[in-house]
Amino acid sequence: MKMLPFGKTGIIASAVGFGAIPIQRITIDESTKILQKAYGEGITFFDTARMYTDSEQKIGAALSNVRDKIIIATKTHSKTYDDIMKDLETSLSLLKTDYIDIYQFHNPEHVPQPGDENRMYEAMTDAKKAGKIKHIAITNHRLDLAHKAVDSGLFESLQFPFSCVSSDDDIALVKKCEDAGVGFIAMKAMAGGLITNAKAAFAYIWQFKNVIPIWGMQHMWELDEFLSYEKNPPAFDDAMKTSIDNDRKELSGSFCRGCGYCMPCPAGIPIPTAARLSFMMGRSRFEQFLSDDWAEQMERIKDCKQCGHCKEHCPYKLDTPEVLKAQYAKYIEFKQA
Fold it and tell me: What domains can be seen in the chain, in order of their start residue?
C-alpha cells in the first residue's frame, strides 16, 4: 500500500482511506469483516464521526486489537466546551481507545477560535494536553470557511469535499493546504454517489500527492475495487478525462451533494435523495425509485411547509425547495415516459 505524509502532523498514512459512513447500513459482523480486510490489505486511515450512529462502535469492535497501527479520525458536531468533552469520552469508549489521532470540528458554521464564548477551541487544546487527542482538525463544506480555517493556522488538517468534478477553486484550496502543511482529507470523492466511474474518480485524485480520499465502502466488492486500483493505479487517460468532463457538465451548479445537513424535514421529505433523484435515476438502476413507496415519498414535496430550515442549513447555498420542485417535475416526467 502506498503511504503518504499527512501535512506537518508527522503522520504517515495509507493513500487509500476508509470512509465509515456506509458501514452504518450493515451489521456489525459484516462491518468487522470489511474493516479487518481493509486493514489486512494495508489501509491504515479510518474516518468516522460521533453523529454516524454506530460507526465508531463498529470500528472499535473490528480494529481495537491493532489500534497502534492505524490512524483514527473522528468528529464532534457539538458547540460547547462541555458537550465536546462529552462527545470525546463517548468516542473514546466506542472506539476502544484512549486517544484520537485526528479530532475534527464537524462542519461548524464558523471557524472556532481561542477565546470564543463557547470555548470550543479550548476543549480541543485541553484534550490535546491531556493526551486524549493528537491533532486538532476541522471539516467543512463551505469554501470560504475552509480558507479561513487554513489561514488561521489553528488546524492541522482540513476535510473538504473533493472529487473529479470539483472546481478550480477547490483545487486551489488543495494547493493552499499543501503549501501550508495542512493535511487534506477528501470527502465526497464520489460526489455523494453521483459519480459512477470509480476508476476515473480514483485516477483523478491519485494525481494529488497531499490528498487522502476516504472512500465510502459497505460492500466487499467495493473494497476490492479500490484495492485493485491502488495495486495497479489506472492512468488518467483521455477517455477518463472525457467521462469527467461530461460529469462536470451535468453536475455543475446547483446539484445536491447529499450531505444531509438539511435534515430533519418537518414534512417528512427525504431531501438528500429527493433533491438529486433525477441524477440517480439516470446514473444507476432506476427501478427501485418507481415503487409506490418512493412515489409516496416524492409526493411529500407538494406538502413543503416553506419553513426555510433546509435552505438555511445547506452549506452549498442551494434554494432547496426550488431544487425539490424541479426534481419532482422530472420524477413525474420520468414515470410517465
Answer: 3-245 (3.20.20.100), 271-336 (no CATH)
Taking the complete model, does pTM exceed 0.85, yes or no?
Answer: yes
Report CA dihedral (300, 304, 308, 309) to the nearest 10 degrees: -30
Tell me how far CA of residue 302 lies from CA of 21, 224, 294, 321, in angstroms. Answer: 30, 42, 14, 10
Where helices occur in 96-214 by DSSP H, the ranges are 120-129, 143-152, 168-180, 198-206
Cis peptide bond upstream of 264, omega within 30: yes
Instruction: Determine contact, residues 148/173, Cβ cutoff 8 Å.
Output: no
Measured CA to CA, the distance from residue 293 to residue 270 in angstroms comes to: 12
DSSP bridge pairs for 18: 46, 215
60-93 pLDDT, tens digit each: 999 999 999 999 999 999 999 999 999 999 999 9
Q: How far apart are CA 110 and CA 148, in angstroms?
A: 9
For the chain, count helices (H), then strands (E): 14, 10
So what's the pLDDT on residue 282?
A: 64
Per the CB < 8 A criterion, the answer to whether 128 and 101 are in contact is no
| pLDDT at residue 9 tops 60 | yes
Burial of 296 (0-12, 13-18, 19+ CB in 10 A): exposed
Q: How far apart are CA 173 and CA 158, in angstroms?
A: 10
Question: What are the grid coordinates assigned to 132, written together?
Answer: 486524549
Rounded average pLDDT over 252-269: 83
| Alpha-carbon dihedral angle through residues 164, 169, 172, 173, given to the nearest 10 degrees | -90
